[in-house]
Amino acid sequence: MRLIKLTLILAIGLITAPAFGGGLSKEEALLEFSFECAQCAAYFGLTSKCFVSSGQLQGDDKASIEKTRNFFYQLQYAAGKAAGMSDKAIEAHFAMVLDSINNDIDKNCANISVIIKKYAKFCKALAENPDQLLDQLMTKGPPTLE
């Protein structure tokens, strides 16, 4: 089911993009989309690790966060491949993003609020409507940060 959703998200974005114009090229939009998904995959992975190690996350909650992390990882991989990235490049980029987010909390789960503040709202919105960001990238360009 998730694979079908991933395919539909990418297909809808690629089909509707030429009709609008003004945004990034397909390749640029897919790369940016892949990078945004990598950030969310790393965010969910790290928050899960921190909350599990502190005993705050168990059972269904743990499974839900891991499922979301896997969804973002698969989506960033699919978008990266569609943009022409190699497997090595996708894996290297994910590792760099994960290192960066780890550095945001000084590699200490006690500082988890830093990344919650930075990523939670965006990643929640992206999880609920990934096709919306891809469409925006292709029609209007990257969103501006508030």
Quick structural summary:
The protein is mostly helical and 146 residues long. It is built from six helices and no strands. Helix content is 76%, strand content 0%.
Would you mind describing this structure in some detail?
The protein has one domain. 76% of the residues lie in helices and 0% in strands. It is mainly alpha-helical.
Note the gap between the termini: 34 Å
H/E order of the elements? HHHHHH
Tell me, rounded to a whole number, the average pLDDT.
Answer: 85
Helical content (DSSP H or I, runs of 4+): over 70%
| DSSP strand count | 0
Q: List the uncertain runs.
A: 14-20
- The helix/strand class is mainly alpha
Please tell me how large the radius of gyration is.
15 Å
- The quaternary state of the protein chains shown equals single chain
* Count of spatially separate domains: 1
Strand content: under 5%
Largest sheet: none
Tally the helices.
6
- So what's the overall shape? globular
Write the SSE topology.
Layout: H1 2-16, H2 26-53, H3 59-82, H4 87-104, H5 113-128, H6 130-139
Helix pairs in contact: 1-3, 1-6, 2-3, 2-4, 2-5, 2-6, 5-6
Key descriptive features of the protein:
single chain; 146 residues; mainly alpha; 76% helix
